[in-house]
Specification:
This protein is of the alpha/beta class. Helix content is 45%, strand content 15%. It contains 17 helices and 14 strands. The strands form two sheets. The protein has a seven-stranded parallel beta sheet with strand order 3-2-1-4-5-6-7, sandwiched between helices. Strands 10-11-9-8-12-13-14 form a seven-stranded parallel beta sheet, with helices on both faces.
Amino acid sequence: MTAAQPLLRRKLRRRGVSEPGYLQHVEERFGHYEGATEPGRLWLHAVSLGETRAAAILMRALRELRPDLRFLLTHGTATGREQGQALLREGDAQAWLPWDTPDAVRRFLAHFRPSAGVLMETEVWPNLAALCAEQGVPLVLVNARLSEKSLSRARKLPGLSRRAYGSLRAVWAQTETDARRLAEAGATVHGVFGNLKFDATPDPSQLRLGRAWHAMAPAPVVMFASSREGEEAGFLAALRAHPGVQWLLVPRHPQRFDEVAAQVAQAGFTVSRRSTWTEGPAAAEVWIGDSLGEMPLYYALADVALLGGSFAPLGGQNLIEAAACGCPVVMGPHTFNFSEAAELALGAGAALRVADMQQGVAAAVAWTGDVGRLRQSAQAGEEFAARHRGASVKTANAVMAMLT
């Protein structure tokens, strides 16, 4: 890890070309932090955008229990850090988590002196875990998940992975399956609390605006939600076979907004981007959702959503938000990041699974033609999301018990 530091600097420079956030506070990546800071904050690490959204839910629950609690929020990606800025209050702090070398981690812990550390979902680093245990900083993993693929990798390095997971003070898993895998990896699992993302509340104003714009749409709206690199080509190739549909494409990563818009135009479609809308979507064959933090608006604007990350072996993106917004979901074959949520959504009638993108587009279009089924599936999604809430309260209580 120490020898790889020059490679990390080169990677940051390259990423910074499209995402300037990677060029900010670079020395924090190596454990060098400016200015004095107050000790005793509760440290939450949310590596990227999805984890930061989950952290927001937990922070809200923790503040309800203890309003004076101060947080240190750390990240690994520019989108996560940008999203996290909105969560900060007076007395909170934000920084990059350092590269996992002993010296960098020691400098991080010496500078911030957190009361405890809370890692979101999957982010367990060997040196970080070992040094927190050595220095008496309780470190826990919340909303924890571990796919079979990740467990297989852990099995190949048991001496390293078992020590890392074993150094954690506690782990609270999303599902019983996650708990079993985490225990096999070496973690001490203290409970299964469910998924924090079920406790997210869609912004009512965004839902209202999305529904108003949906009423203005020239045709049924099929959305490709949180698309990932390599998936859009198959999506665009399938569109010509289905005229009479308004397409909405929302890339997962903001640095790809321009690239995806250009790809759509090169495929011969007219394009309108959310960033140019004032009174509503402009006329175009494909609308591009090029904004952050507006997924409830997009789900309310759509009749049906294709799930990004599930049509390539990427594990799928979060389908819980779509269900909570009342938007039925068509999933591809790859949903291992949200396997239990995917199966529950299928069982509830809020989603369906297909083998590939061509089938997915066809199924979504067919779904828009059955108004009764759409309404029933939308209601099933909202009820499914409501039934599985409660993880934030359980997790917040467990974290507070650790602090006392």
